[in-house]
Amino acid sequence: MGLQKRFLKSKPVGKVTFRLPKEAATNATAVNLVGEFNNWDKIDLPMTRLKNGEFKVTIDLPVGREYQFRYLISNPEGTTWENDWAADKYTPSGINGAENSVLVL
User: What is the pLDDT of residues 17-70, one digit of tens each?
Assistant: First the structure.
């Protein structure tokens, strides 16, 4: 499913729904959305687990910008980072050759 964007006519804001598929979050006990929009806070945006095993969260963001982000997946073995498979693009994160997902609004 990936990213879903809805633009508000009354304000320069986009409602963005982030979805992490079940396959990417196998054995996940929790998933948090982490990115520039929340100053890379690891606990600020917890995602909700859906019945089908996906994780989802919707946030409002100002349009006319690009935002880097990733998913922080917690499981019994620890935590791992995952990119959005349907991101608009990717950019180097500067850490061990990893990339960040990029949302373009």
Answer: 999 999 998 889 999 999 999 999 999 999 999 999 999 999 999 999 999 999
C-alpha torsion angle, residues 4, 99, 41, 24 (rounded to 10): 60
Strand stretches in the chain, DSSP E: 4-7, 13-20, 30-35, 48-49, 55-62, 66-75, 78-82, 89-92, 99-104
Q: Of 20, 101, 12, whose CA–CA distance to 61 is shortest?
A: 12
Confirm if 29 and 72 have CB atoms less than 8 A apart: no
Residue type, 18: F
For the chain, list the domains and their CATH numbers.
4-104 (2.60.40.10)
- What pLDDT, on the 0 to 100 scale, is given for residue 75? 93
Please compute, for residue 68, the number of CA atoms within 13 A of its CA located in the half-sphere on the CB side: 12
